[in-house]
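Please check this today:
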Amino acid sequence: MTSATRITALAFGLGIALFGAPVLAQGKEPAMTGKTAMGPVLTDAKGMTLYVFDKDTAGKSTCNGPCAANWPPLMADSSAKPMGKYTVVTRDDGSRQWAYNGKPLYTWAKDAKAGDTTGDGVNSVWHVAKP
């Protein structure tokens, strides 16, 4: 095992210990399950809470421009493939975003640390993404 492999394994293990078990066992998991005061929620790799937007339709993000600045999409790279309940949607600008049960996933710019859920209920259309 190389030093880089050991460091990656250690970092991944710490991520599981801090934020819960990964949702997917494949290489780059789009989300993990984290524990918050609201119970289990989906989080990104940094432990930041993920959200869904009521105005999105299945497989389509409607949060662009200034909206996406406040609600950064959980981006998917060009090699990302659907797995389980996770799919990839193409955004208006051609970039790719992860979705869960067809709903695109976002973080909230005003969440300051892992476990924050301050975006839940914003304008009555943003909600934490639950596993």
User: Anything to note?
Assistant: The radius of gyration is 15 Å.
